[in-house]
Amino acid sequence: MNTMHEEVELEKSVRRLREKFHGFIDIDKAVLLMRRYMNDHQMVAKWVALMANADRDLDDEERNTLKNDPVVKNVVMKLKADERQQEEHPTKTSGSSAASSSAKPKAKKKTNEDKHLVELGEHLQALPLTMENKRMFDQAQENQIPAITHQFACQSCDREWWRRVPQRKRVSRCRRCKTKYDPVPPDKMWGIAEFHCPNCTRSFMGFGRMDGRSPCYGCRSAIFPTRILPPKRRAMMPGVRRKNQHSCLAEDCFNRMEPHVPGTECVHPRSRQKNRKPRVVYPSPAHISSGSTVNTCLSQGSLLESINELILDDIEEESDEESDISS
Hints:
This protein is of the alpha+beta class.
């Protein structure tokens, strides 16, 4: 197996395992378990949630693995560096398919005899019995990482993107400047919007912003959008698509509807370009780390960034630099 791909697969499984347990699992132990069980984070998460026994430290064999296995060493160093940098600079971020199973290390121990699984089960069992912790165990056993899709925007790089992020850690990083951001506030989102007119009951899509009205293509009533649609959601919208030229009440709209609202901005790309305005309408607030979340799941400081991919193949990013609906 290519060393780079091997490290990527190991890092992916370690991040997934740690995210399922909200970062309570130490990096060293998570890496050893993923190396031992061929990156099977689903199986390990289920066993950890069920195990409970006496605490034990690393034995000589495991210390030797941490010290001498180059793939394990690189991933441990990478993940620990991420956490150190996040602790030292809380407001800033640190700047392919797996091969066949024959190329992977073989599991040396049965799960019910593995002291690390037993140890982690005991450690996690000692956590306070809260609804949040109970939910964490239930979701780990079901192999779930609850996620939600958010819009993010970097003002300095003038770019906007959508990211599916864990519900407990709604943070994304700009790929250009590496700054971490919180989502665009719900009432400030913009882009391709879904509208439902209460007057003529017409439903349609068009460029809009949550805090601005646009005219209904049927009765011309000025209405607010219902929601802003992520790129994939737009393609799934049912019904026949009709082309209608964009029009809104914004003062600088290229096809302004009267009476317009003074001081308002149009979000349509044609208006933004015509008025020489940036693409970002409302920037994301910079993320301020509370220290309660760790680099576990998202592509923050990921090995994959050098090849322009994401650390998790099931958490996708879609940028406005890709094709958008416009008319």
